[in-house]
């Protein structure tokens, strides 16, 4: 597979768009800060209004970074699942992985009442939410993987994912019934999804986990490419399928888990971004797709977040609603197209 | 057959094949003894469900043997790492390829994976070998196309080119001519025959095109309900083995014309 010059141009274009969208994202918010002032604050360190500096450094930049990490991580997870499951419709949300992560968090937040005291406090720390959500994601992903061994049909796999989502929702309902109004509120707000509210410390943890997953991924780029031929061919090319599957399993549940923990269950991004990227680049080579999906995911999430801000308004929409509004139609479009030319 | 041991690429000893499931062992065929020289075109014949695919999968280590041993170049198959296997044996399977944006060249170049670095970057040698493989099967004209744009016949040639690019001494093909029309069937058979002649590779294929197989194969492997038989056409005719291939009265082997004919 050749690294064409056309890819380089597309990458440069994407990089520039990312920079532009990131600036745009930071410039928007409930408090109006002139774009010129923003550029001054960011690049020149010129004395500006202190409150503006504070807002930009402690709210808007962390939020923009969160958006980028969430978009990249979900997109890459989606791409990995689509290749591993040989299914164009796979993704962290569609397969119920995000629901699994939610279930983990629900068990933690809503279940903390049963423990109470010091233990309860510990359980609600960022770390424990991250761990609970990763475990939830891992459990559902493993179950889906087992189920998929017996099911080959694309549509059936979607239904299995849907069912896992329903089971998670049902358990969350039961838990909600037994928990206090306060805990319920905490959980509901979490489940709306939010890119804000992350401290620089939490952001560092977030960044390190995404970085770790990405490094792990570098080692399976080659096996992922041979998986494009299906498992039997991949084995005949000397690929260690089990190892590859485990790395995909671990990285995707880690990424989906940590993203869900920090920003709530975010729908459809993981499915839509790999497809948009494949449309732009017209390739299946993971050496190009992985970085491209990461950049596209970051751009898309920044745009969604900008829309969620409802520019010039004081209200903020739940980010989950925005991504669903644009993501769900993409799934429908893919299904229609699949019927047409069986691609 | 008096040949020295070093020319034997594939050998089996009392191989039994089949599946292990929860309900027990499902043995498909037993006492398979193969002694295959290098540079032969082998056709594996047998009726549906007799275990042709199972045998090919067992020989290529994609499935475990129930008993007995397979030797590849006099080395126990079980002791060969899959990364080494990939340099000795390549496959053309009946599996459908999952949806993707792979181009024909990219698909063929994936055959170079056992030789590329950890990122799968193609060296100039890899490029050359992929191009050579494409030329060998005569698909230069469609090399830039996406694989999903191809007809079944073209795709089968692409898959053969991919196996060639893998640069192995043995190529195993599972029913390479299924879904193809008569013209393409003959084309694929001729192509494989020429490859054996020109490259000295050993090619093993299973097929239902019995008459074509009788004409071009150097060695015929017959799987009958009773046993596994290996030999040249003349040997099989002498031992009246071919009569046992199909348990039907409607199709019969005619030793004079050396082909299967319909009985009315």
Give a verbal description of the structure:
The complex is a heterodimer of chains A (343) and B (264). Chain A has one domain: ABC transporter involved in vitamin B12 uptake, BtuC (Orthogonal Bundle), CATH 1.10.3470. Chain A is globular. By secondary structure, chain A is mostly helical. Chain A has helices at 5-27, 35-44, 50-84, 97-115, 117-123, 126-150, 154-177, 181-192, 200-218, 221-226, 231-236, 241-263, 269-281, 286-308, 319-341. Chain A contains 15 helices and no strands. Chain B is an alpha/beta fold. Chain B has one domain (5-262): 3-Layer(aba) Sandwich (Rossmann fold). Helix content of chain B is 30%, strand content 27%. Chain B is globular, with a radius of gyration of 19 Å. Chain B starts with 7 loop residues before the first strand and ends with a strand. At the A-B interface, helix 10 and helix 11 of A face helix 2, strand 7 and helix 3 of B.
> In percent terms, what proportion of residues of chain A is strand?
under 5%
Q: Which whole number gives the mean pLDDT of chain A?
A: 84
CATH topology of chain A: ABC transporter involved in vitamin B12 uptake, BtuC
- So how many helices of chain B? 8
User: By helix and strand content of chain A, what is the structural category?
Assistant: mainly alpha
CATH fold annotation of chain B:
Rossmann fold
Q: Spans of chain B of 5+ residues with little confidence (pLDDT < 50)?
A: none
- Helix % of chain A is over 70%
- Outline the biggest β-sheet of chain B: 6 strands, mixed
Shape descriptor of chain A = globular
Low-confidence segments of chain A, ≥5 residues, pLDDT <50?
Answer: none
What's the level 1 CATH class of chain A?
Mainly Alpha
Report the count of strand segments of chain A. 0
The secondary structure category of chain B is: alpha/beta
CATH class assignment of chain B = Alpha Beta
């Amino acid at each position: 597979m050749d690294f064409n010059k056309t890819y380089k141009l597309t990458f440069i274009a994407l990089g520039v768009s990312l920079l532009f969208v990131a600036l745009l994202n930071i410039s928007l918010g409930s408090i109006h800060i002139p774009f010129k002032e923003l550029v001054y604050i960011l690049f020149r360190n010129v004395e500006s209004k202190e409150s503006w500096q504070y807002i930009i450094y402690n709210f808007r930049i962390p939020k923009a970074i969160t958006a980028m990490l969430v978009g990249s991580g979900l997109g890459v997870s989606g791409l990995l699942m689509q290749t591993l499951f040989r299914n164009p419709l796979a993704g962290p949300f569609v397969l119920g992985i995000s629901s699994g992560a939610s279930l983990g968090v629900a068990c933690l937040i809503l279940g903390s009442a049963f423990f109470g005291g010091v233990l309860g406090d510990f359980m609600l720390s960022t770390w424990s939410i991250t761990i609970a959500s990763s475990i939830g994601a891992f459990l559902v992903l493993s179950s889906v993987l087992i189920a998929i061994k017996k099911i080959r049909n694309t549509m059936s796999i979607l239904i299995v994912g849907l069912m896992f989502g329903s089971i998670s929702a049902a358990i969350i309902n039961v838990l909600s019934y037994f928990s206090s109004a306060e805990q319920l509120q905490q959980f509901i707000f979490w489940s709306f999804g939010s890119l804000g509210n992350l401290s620089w410390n939490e952001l560092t943890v977030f960044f390190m986990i995404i970085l770790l997953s990405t490094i792990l991924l570098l080692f399976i780029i080659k096996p992922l490419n041979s998986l494009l031929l299906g498992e039997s061919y991949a084995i005949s090319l000397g690929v260690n399928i089990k190892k590859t599957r485990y790395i995909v399993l671990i990285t995707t549940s880690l990424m989906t888990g940590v993203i869900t923990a920090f920003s709530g269950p975010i729908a459809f991004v993981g499915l839509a971004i790999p497809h948009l990227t494949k449309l732009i680049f017209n390739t299946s080579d993971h050496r190009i797709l992985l970085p491209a999906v990461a950049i596209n995911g970051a751009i898309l999430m920044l745009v969604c977040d900008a829309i969620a801000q409802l520019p010039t308004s004081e209200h903020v929409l739940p980010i989950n609603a925005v991504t669903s509004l644009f993501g769900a139609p993409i799934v429908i479009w893919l299904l229609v197209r699949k019927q047409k030319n069986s691609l | 057959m008096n040949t020295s041991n070093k020319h034997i690429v594939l050998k089996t000893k009392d191989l039994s094949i089949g599946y292990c499931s929860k309900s027990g062992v499902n043995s498909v065929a037993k006492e398979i003894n193969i002694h295959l020289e290098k540079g032969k075109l082998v056709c594996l014949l047998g009726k549906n469900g007799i275990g042709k695919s199972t045998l090919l999968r067992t020989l290529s280590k994609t499935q475990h043997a129930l008993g007995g041993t397979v030797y590849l170049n006099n080395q126990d198959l079980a002791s060969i790492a899959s990364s080494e296997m990939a340099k000795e044996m390549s496959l053309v399977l009946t599996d459908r390829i999952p949806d993707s944006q792979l181009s024909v060249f990219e698909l063929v170049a994936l055959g170079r994976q056992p030789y590329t670095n950890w990122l799968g970057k193609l060296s100039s040698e890899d490029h050359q070998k992929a191009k050579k493989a494409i030329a060998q099967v005569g698909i230069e004209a469609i090399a830039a196309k996406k694989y999903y744009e191809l007809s079944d016949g073209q795709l089968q040639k692409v898959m053969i080119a991919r196996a060639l690019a893998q640069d192995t001494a043995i190529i195993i093909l599972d029913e390479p001519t299924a879904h193809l029309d008569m013209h393409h069937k003959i084309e694929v058979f001729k192509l494989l025959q020429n490859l054996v002649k020109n490259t000295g590779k050993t090619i093993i294929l299973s097929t239902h095109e019995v008459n074509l197989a009788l004409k071009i194969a150097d060695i015929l492997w017959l799987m009958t309900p009773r046993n596994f038989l290996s030999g040249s056409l003349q040997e099989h005719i002498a031992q009246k083995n071919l009569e046992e291939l199909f348990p039907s009265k409607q199709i019969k082997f005619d030793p004079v014309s050396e082909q299967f004919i319909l009985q009315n």
